[in-house]
Specification:
By secondary structure, the chain is of the alpha+beta class. The chain has a single domain (4-76), classed as Aminopeptidase, CATH 3.40.630. Helices cover 42% and strands 20% of the residues. A three-stranded antiparallel sheet has the order 1-2-3. Helix 1 (13-28) packs antiparallel against helix 2. The protein is globular, with a radius of gyration of 13 Å. The two termini are 23 Å apart.
Length: 84
């Protein structure tokens, strides 16, 4: 499978939110208790967080598959901090 990087689009927000929650729940269980994972997931900002960050100048790079479906992402804050 071939992947491509592109800039975030508003319609990516829901998928990126689902990807983040899946990572929290699946990967988190390898190093945290269920209660800790639940607390982490409950603080996730949802789809609006991505739209808000993009509007504030954060760079969101989205890896997409051959059908242009997001499969991963990176969020770079304006100060250069790689947040996700």
């Amino acid at each position: 499978m071939t992947y491509t990087l592109r800039d975030f689009r508003e319609d990516d927000a829901e998928v990126l939110s689902a990807l983040a929650l899946a990572a929290i729940r699946v990967v988190g269980m390898h190093g945290y208790t269920s209660a800790q994972v639940d607390a982490w997931a409950s603080r996730h900002g949802g789809a609006d967080m991505y739209r808000d960050r993009a509007a504030k100048g954060h760079a969101i790079f989205v890896a997409v598959d051959e059908r242009d479906q997001p499969v991963a992402y990176a969020l770079l804050e304006p100060d250069g901090h790689l947040a996700r």
